[in-house]
Fold each of these.
Amino acid sequence: MAKSPKIDDSVTSLRGVGPALSARLATLNVHSVHDLLLHLPSRYQDRTRIVPLAQAVPGQECLVTGEVIDSKIAYGRRRSWLITLADGSGFLTLRFFHFSKRQQAGLKAGMFLRCFGQVRMGPKGPELVHPEYRAFTAQPDPPEPVLTPIYPTTEGLGQARITNLMEQALGCLADWRPPDCRGMSDLSDLLDHTAFPNLADALRYLHRPPVEASAASLAEARERAALDELLASILVMKRRQRARATEQTRPLPRNQQLGRKLRDRLGFQLTGAQRRVITDVLVDLEKPRPMLRLIQGDVGSGKTVVAAFAAVRAAEHDCQTAVMAPTELLAEQHYLNFSEWLTPLGINVALHTGGASQRDRRERSNRLAAGDTLVAVGTHALFQRTERFANLALTVIDEQHRFGVHQRMTLKDKGRSPHQLIMTATPIPRTLTMALYADMDVSIIDELPPGRQPVTTTVVADTRRDEVIARVARACGQGQQAYWVCTLIEASEALDYRDVQTTHAELCERLAPQRVALLHGQMPSAEKTQIMAEFKAASIDVLVATTVIEVGVDVPNASLMVIENPERLGLAQLHQLRGRIGRGSIESHCVLLYHAPLSESAKARLNVMRASNDGFAIAEKDLELRGPGEILGTRQTGEVRYRVLDFTAHAHLIGKASEMAGVLVDDTERSDALIATWSPAEGDYSNV
Ligand code: ADP
Ligand code: MG
C-alpha cells in the first residue's frame, strides 16, 4: 500500500494526481497538500433542505424532490425535453435541451427525482434548466446533512475532483498538530477572542461545515484564516524592512548649501507639509542604510519639488538620481521642472525617453555611464532595459500606483542598493497602507499650496451638451483653457461612448476660432510633446484628450475640465483627472458629462465626486464602493494575490494584524511557521 501523504508533500502524493492535474492545480496556486487545504470554498450550496415545489422561487438555487408525472418532448423554437414533477405542494418543470434517447427512456412516470439547480422563470412558470438530478424508484433518502462547499476552480478541474482531493488532504490535517504544525500555532494569546484559536480547526470547519454552521460562523472561520494570511504578509514586509536596516549604502550627509539655493530660487514658499516631508527624506539620506520612503500626497500637493531636494542632496555628493515616471508625457514634464530648478545649480539633468535619434541616445547613455549626467529622468521601462549608471545613489518612482503594487522593478548599481523615494497621488486609506506598505516609511503631504481654489464639480447629462460647449467657449473667450476628456480613442460600434477623435472634430468646428488640439496615447511622442508644450504656452485653448493626461500633467492656467462618460471611470481615476485643474489661482470647474441611464454604483461615484475634493475621503468611499483591488489598480495585473484575505471583508483586521506582527516579528519560530504556510507573494521594491 502506498504510504499516506504528509501535509508538506506535493499534491502528486495524493491519489489520482498526475502531471496534468498537478499543472491545473498549480494555476490555482496549489502545489502542496497544505496549499490545497488553504484553497477555501468560494461559497456553499444548501442541499440540506428540500424546498417544496410550490416555493421554488426564480433566482434561487435549491434542492427539490418530486414524483415524475409527465415526460415529453416539446418542439418549440428549440427542441427540449420537459419533465413535470409533483410533490403535493405543487408542480415544477425540468427542461433539458441536450439529452440522450437512453436518458429519456430511463425516466418514467411514477419515479422520484432529486434535483439541484437554479430556478428560472420559464414560459409557463418556474423551471429548472439542466439541473443535476438523480432518479429513485421510491421516495429518496433524506438530503445531505451539511452545506456543500463549492471551490474556485479552473478549466478541466471539476468540483467532484477537488472535493475528492480535499477529502484526502483533510485526512492529513488530523496529524497536523504542534510542534510540527507549521503556522498552525495557537495565536490565542494575541487574539482577544475567537471560536477558532487554531487555524486547523478553522480550515476543517470551512471545508466540512458542521450541521449547525451559519453564514456568520463560516465568516468567522474565514476571518481566522484571513488573519493568519494577513499576518504572514505583513511579517514578510517587516522582515524585509529589517534586512534593509542591515544593508549598507552610501550615506549622503549635508555638505554644500545647494538645497538652500534651490529653496531660495523656487519662486514660492514651501508649505509646512513639504518642509516636514523634505526633512524626513534628507534625514533618511544621511544614514548609511538605504531609504525606502513612500510619499503620499493628494494631486497638486507639490510632491515633485520634494524629489528635487533629494536629487540635489545626491548631486552634492556627485551621485546620480534616476527619476522614473509611468508615461513619457510625465517624464517630459519632470525633465522641464528639474532642469529649471537644478541646471542653475550646476547639476546636469537629462531626459531619457524613447523619442531620441540613435546617435543622441548613444551619447546620452555615455554621459550617464560616465557620471556626467547627475539626474536622469525617464520612463521606468527604459532605465530597466538599457541604461548603466556610474554612481546611482537615489531612485525616485513617481506615480507608483501606475506600476502596479507589487511589480518587481530592477535597477541596480553594481550591487549597491540605492535610496528609494516612492511617490503616489492615489490616496490609499490608512488601514490599507498598513497592510500593503508595512516595509516602508511613509510621509504624507496633507496640505495644498496656498491660494488654490477648490474645484466645483457639476454632474450633467449629455442631453445638455450644447450648454456645456457654450460654457467652454465662454471660458476660452476670457483667456482660460480647458481639457475635454474622452474615454475612447476611436469611435466604436460596440460601445456607446464618445471618442476623442470625433469629439475633436466636432469641437474644432463648434468652438472656432478657439484653437482645439487632440492628444492621446497612440500619437508619436514628439507630437505629444509638441502639443503639451503649446498647451502650456497657452497657444492651444482646448485640449481634447484621453485619460493620458491623468497623471501629473500640470498647466495652471487650465481651469475647466469636461469629462465625457465619467460613468466608465473609477473614483480614483476621476479624482486624478480632476486634479489637472484647480492648480492656479483662478476658480476651476469640472463638468461630468454622463450618458443616461446610470447604474446605481455610477450614480454613487459621481455624487461622491460632486461632494468632495479630498482625495483621502474619496479613497475611503472607493474602498466601500468597489473594494481595494480597483483602488490599487491591481485587479487587472493580478499582482496582489491573497488566498483568503479580501480587503473588503477583512479591512477591520488590519489594525490588529499590524499590531500582532509587531510582536511576532521577534518570534522567529512562529513567524517562520506563518510565512512557510502562506508563502505570501513577495512584493518587491527593494530591488528597484
Ligand atoms: P503633485 O503632488 O500632484 O505631483 P506637483 O509637484 O506637480 O504636484 O505640483 C503642482 C504645482 O504646484 C506645480 O506647478 C508646482 O510647481 C507647484 N507648487 C509646488 N509646491 C508649491 C508651493 N509650496 N507653493 C506654490 N506652488 C507650488
Ligand atoms: Mg506629480
Amino acid sequence: MASESSIDAAAPKAEVVTRFAPSPTGYLHIGGARTALFNWLYARHHGGRTLLRIEDTDRKRSTQDAIDAIIDGLAWLGLDYDAPPVFQSDRAERHAEVAWQLLEAGHAYKCFATSEELEAMREEQRANKKPLRYDGRWRDRDPSEAPEGVPFTIRIKAPKGGETTIQDRVQGAVTVRNEEIDDYIILRADGTPTYMLAVVVDDHDMGVTHVIRGDDHLNNAFRQLPIIRAMNAIEGNWPDPVYAHIPLIHGSDGAKLSKRHGALGVEAYRDEFGILPEALFNYLLRLGWGHGDREEITREEATQLFDLDGVGKSPSRFDLKKLENLNGHYLREADDARLAALVATRIGEDADEALLTRAMPVLKLRAKNLNELVEGAAFLFAKRPLGMTEKAAALLEGEARTILRSLCNALAAQNDWTSEALEATTKALAEEQGLGLGKLAQPMRAALTGTTTSPGIFDVLVLLGRDEALARLNAQAA
Ligand code: GLU
C-alpha cells in the first residue's frame, strides 16, 4: 500500500492549493468524485494547484484495490494532480512530531486515564443524559501524579468558554460553543496519530489553502481548528484554511444516497452503464453547482466558470435519467472513431472497428449510453441465418415475403449503392405496387436486422454493403 510519497516543502506556495483526501475503504463513489471535481475545478479556475492525499491510516479497512479504483476513476474523469499522491500512512512520524511539539508548548497534555475509567465517566454522562465528552480530568493535573507505568495518550487543549465561528464558503457563518469541543486524543497510547491530527498536519505540510469537502466533515473543522491555531501560536505560518463544506448528495427520493440509489463506484458508471467521462464530469458539476440554468457545460467552460459562490446549500438529488440524457448529448458530440473503439471492446472479436466508425453517425443519433450503441450495432455483425425477435418474425408473415422478393430484384438491379439511390428504387417499387413505403420498409428491416428498430433502413442497406444486404433479403424472400 505504501508508495513513494513526498511533500516538497520547498515548493513555492501557490495562492490556491486544494486537495482531495479520500479514505480508500471503498471505491470512488459519486459523492467522492464530486468532491474531487470541485477541488480540481476550484484550483484550475484560480490558477492554483490541486493535490491528492490517500487517507489510508485505517489499515484494516484500506485496500490496494480501493486505492487503484480511486486513482483510476480520477484519471478516467480527467482529474489530474500537480504532485504524486501523498499516502497518509507514510507520515505517522511527522504527525507524532507535531503532537509532541504541541505537548511541549503546553497546547496539549498527557492523559493517564485508563479505558475503564473513561468508560465509567461516559456511563455517568449517559445516566445524567449529558453529552459524552472527555471531562478534561488530566488537563490541569501534574503528570507526576500519574500512576507508575500507566500508558498515556496526548490530548489537545481545546479552547474553553466562548465560541468558534467558521466563515464557510458554502454554509456561511457557522458557530459552535467551545464547550461542545472536548480535549480529544491526538496521539494514542501506542504512539500512533489520530485521524484528526493527521488531516491537519498533512493539510499544512501540503500547503493546502482551501479545504473543500462533504458537509459531514463540518463538525470536524471545529475540532481541527484548535490544533491549527495552537501550531500557529507556536510556529506562525499555520493559517486557518478557507473551508467549503458541500452538501451531500441524496437519491431521487430525497433520502441520503445509498447503493439502492445507484451510489456506485464511478467504474460502474463507466463499465455497467456505459457513461462517457465527459458526461459524468458535466453531471457531477451540475450536481450542487449551477450557472444560470445551463445544463451542458464542457470541461473548458467549467474551468472558466466554476467558483464556490455557485455551490448551493441544500443537498442535490442524484438522477440517473438526467445523467443518461447528458450522456446522450455527449455521445452525439463524441468522435466516431473513439466511440467505435469503445463499442468494439464491448462487442469483442466479432467487431469491425472501421465499419463501426462508418455506422456511428447513425447509431449514435438516439443512444443514451454505450450499451445502447452495442445493441444498435449488433445487426452489423449478425451472422446468417439471422436470429429474429418475435416482433420481427411477425413482420415477415403473409405477403411480406413476396414483397421482399420483388424488392430483392429491384435492389439487385440498382448499381448505385447509396442511400439516395436505394431510397429512390424502393419508393418507385412501392408506387408501382400501390403500397405505402412502410409495407416495404418493415419486412426489410426485419430481414436485414432481425429486429424492428434500427437506424434508417437505407443507411442499414449501405452499411451492410450490397452483398450482405441482398443475401439477408434473399434469405427471407419467398
Ligand atoms: N478522508 C476523509 C473522507 O474520505 C476526508 C477528509 C477531509 O476531506 O478532510 O471522508
Amino acid sequence: MYKILEKKALGPGMWYMRIQAPLVARRAMPGQFIMFRISEEGERVPLTIADFDRQEGWVTIIFQEVGFSTKQLGRLEQGDHILDFAGPLGQPSVLDGFKKVLCIGGGVGIAPLYPQIKQLSQAGASVSVIIGARSKDYIILEEEIKGLSDSLYIATDDGSYGQKGFVTDILKDLITKQASKYDLVIAIGPLVMMKAVADFTRAFAIPTRVSLNPIMVDGTGMCGGCRVTVGGQTKYACVDGPEFDGHLVDFDEAMRRQGMYKQEERVDHFCRLTDQGGGSK
Ligand code: NAD
Ligand code: FES
C-alpha cells in the first residue's frame, strides 16, 4: 500500500499528491510514468511522474479528475493509501547534450514537463518554457518553473492571464519574429496541441519530442492497447515511449484511437455510480 504524504488542490479538479513509494522513487527518471489502482476492482490508470526524491523515497503525481478512477483518486486524502502504484514504467527522456531547449506544456501536460526542465537546468542547459491553459485557474507549477527556466511565457485561451491564445501562437512568435534557435522542442499536452507544435517545427527542422498517453491496460507491452504509429511502424507507448519524435507520430490515428472508447467509458462510469448508490444524475 502506498501512503499519500501530501495532497494539494492546484486548480479546478486538479490535484497534486506526494506518494510514499521508495522503490519507484529509487529508479524514477524524467519522462517515465506510473500506473495506479485504487482497489482490487479498480482499473489501472497511467500518470506521468511529476517529481521524485530518491533519498526521501517519494514520487509526486499531478492529475485532473476526468474519469471514474481519477475522481476516486481525487477523493482520497493525506494519510490514505493507494493499493497499487507500479513503476517507473516507460523509457526515460533523453536530455543529455542539449544546450538550448524549448519546453511547451498544455494544461495538465505541464506537470510531466517539470522533471525534464529540472534536469535540463541542473545540467546547465538554457531552457525556455511556454505554458498554456484554458484560463488562469488551470495554470500550474508557474513559480516552480520560473525558478528553473531562462524565460517563461504564458498563454491562456480566454486571455485571463498571460497572452491570449494558444501556446503555438507564442511558439510561432519566438521562431519567426524573434528568430530564436533551439536544439530541441519538447511538447506535452493534448494531442491536438502536440500535433500543431510538430507541424510547425517540422518546417524549421527543429527536432521535436512529444509525450503520448494513449489508453493503457497492462502497461507492459502485452495487450497492444497503447499502440501508436511512429514513422510507419507500430510502437507501444508503454514500453517504447511514452516519448516519440513528434515529426513521425501519426497524430490523426492517435486521435481516432483516443476517442474509440468514449461511449464505453460513459456507460462504465454510469454503472459504477449506480452500483455504488451514486444515483443516475
Ligand atoms: P487543454 O485542452 O485545456 O489545452 C491546454 C492548452 O493546449 C491550451 O490552453 C492551448 O494552449 C493548447 N492547445 C489546445 N488546443 C490547441 C490547438 N488546437 N492548437 C494549439 N494549441 C492548442 O488541456 P487539458 O484539458 O489540461 O488536457 C491536457 C492534455 O494533456 C490531456 O489530453 C492529457 O491527455 C494530456 N497529457 C499528456 C501527458 C503525457 O504524458 N503525454 C501527461 C499529462 C497530460
Ligand atoms: Fe498494453 Fe501498452 S498498455 S501494450
Amino acid sequence: MAAGIFDSGLGGLTVLGAIEARLPDLPVIYLGDNANAPYGVRSPDDIHARTKAHVEYLWANGCDLVILACNTASAAALRRMQEAGVPKGKRVLGVFVPLIEALTERQWGDNSPPREVAIKHVALFATPTTVSSRAFQRELAFRAIGVDVEAQACGGVVDAIEDGDMILAEALVRSHVEALRRKMPDPQAAILGCTHYPLLEDVFRAALGPKVSVFSQPALVADSLADYIGRHPQMIGDGEAARFLTTGDPARVSDRATQFLKRSISFETV
Ligand code: DGL
C-alpha cells in the first residue's frame, strides 16, 4: 500500500516534492494523466470522469489514500466523488482546504463560523475551469467574511509547462499578472491555485512585487497531510520505493520530471 498522488500532468510533482521532504518514509504512487493534460480547459463532467477513473485505479492498486494534487480536479470532481460515496477504508483529499485555512489563519479542521480576517484583497491565479467553478470562493466563504477575490484564468500556462516551453510559460505568467493588476491594482495576497504554478513561483513573485504575500500549495498540503496521517496512521501503507505512472510518453515525462525535481525520475506507462 502507498499514498496515491494524482494530477493531470507534471504539476502534482510540486506537491510530491514537498510531501517527500515532510514525510520521507511515506510510500507514494504518483499518477499523471499527461496524455490528457491540460484539464483546465475541459468541461467539469469530463474532468470528473477522468479523475474518478484514475482515483479508482489508485485505490485498486494499493493506495487507500489518494491526494488530488490538482486544483482543477479538486474543483470539478472532489465534492461530487465524496457525495457519491467513497468505498469503505478509502479516502480522497483535495488541495484547496489547506490553502484556505492558511489564508484565513485557521487550524486544521476549525469549522467555526466565518469571521473577518486580516487579508481583504486576494488575487487568485488558476486554470480557466477552476476559476469558473468558483470552488475557491465557495470554500473561502465558509471560513471568512469580507474578502474580495479577483480571479485570473491563466490560459496557456499549463500547456507551456507540459510542453517544456518555460520561456513561453514565464511570458504568460507576466501577462496574467498584468491582467490581474488591471482589475485589482493592489492585492494583499496572491494564491497560486494550480499545482503547476509553483514551478514558476519566482516569476509570479517578481511580477507581483514584494508587497504581495504569495500562498503556494505544496508545503501547506504536505503539512496538512502530515497532520492527517498523524491522526490516521493506518492510511500510510507499507509500500516500498515511490512509483511514477503516466498515461503519456514515459520517456518524455521522465525527462521533464527529472528537470523539475532535479533528480532522476523514471515514469512507467500506467
Ligand atoms: N495542476 C493542475 C491544477 O492544479 C492543472 C491543471 C491542468 O491540467 O490544466 O489545477
